[in-house]
Specification:
With 188 residues, this protein is mainly α. It has one domain (4-186): Hypothetical protein af1432. It contains 10 helices and no strands. It has helices at 4-14, 18-38, 42-51, 68-73, 81-89, 101-125, 137-145, 155-158, 168-181, 183-186. Helix 5 (81-89) packs across helix 6 (101-125). The chain is globular, with a radius of gyration of 15 Å. The chain starts with a helix and ends with a helix. It binds fe (ii) ion.
Length: 188
């Protein structure tokens, strides 16, 4: 399996937008914390988070292809099949269906992490100093419930974490802490 350094180098080869790279690093951090909480493989979950949007620029943001091209890019990466399936299936507009139970677990974690990272970053950006350290778990829960806030964040996707028997009251702070730990790297 590829190392974190190799994964990051691959990501930089395919993604040109620094904002997208940071998004991937944020999802990686949340996936790592979630895997730890669930007793799942932290290395595999982290790499899945880091690489999940690798084909985003390559497919020119075509949602019918996004996720599918990643399968080709990552075919020789050594990432296990269930991780590849989760990456292909995290975008529900490409026709890829995930059936394997282990892949489904990663998939739900990935979708929840993907969208909660957006919610947390949007919340940080409306804080007085635009810092992750200013965000409190209660604020995050309020922003989650406020439908007019960060409308691009799909609350239903975040709720997929409940399929892993983790409730939102636990997942939101867990995700917030994961991003606060890498705040410098995210520049927030
Ligand atoms: Fe993403």
């Amino acid at each position: 399996m590829l190392s974190r350094e190799e994964a990051l180098a691959l990501l930089y080869r395919y993604l040109k937008d620094e904002k997208m790279i940071k998004h991937c690093i944020a999802v990686e951090a949340i996936m790592c914390s979630l895997a730890k909480r669930l007793g799942e493989n932290e290395v595999i979950w982290s790499l899945t988070g880091l690489l999940h949007d690798i084909d985003y620029d390559y497919v020119e943001r075509d949602m019918a292809k996004h996720g599918l091209e990643a399968l080709n890019i990552l075919s020789s990466s050594g990432l296990p099949r269930e991780a590849l399936e989760a990456i292909a299936g995290h975008n529900e507009h490409n026709g890829f269906r995930v059936i394997d139970e282990r892949a489904l677990k990663i998939l739900h974690g990935l979708r929840a992490s993907d969208h909660v990272s957006g919610l947390i970053i949007a919340t940080a950006l409306v804080m007085p100093n635009k810092k992750l350290s200013e965000v409190k778990p209660a604020t995050l829960l309020r922003k989650f419930k406020s439908k007019d806030f960060a409308r691009g964040v799909d609350r239903e996707r975040i709720k997929e974490v409940e399929l892993l028997n983790v409730d939102l009251e636990e997942f939101l702070p867990l995700s917030l802490e994961a991003l606060q730990r890498i705040a410098d790297e995210l520049g927030l």
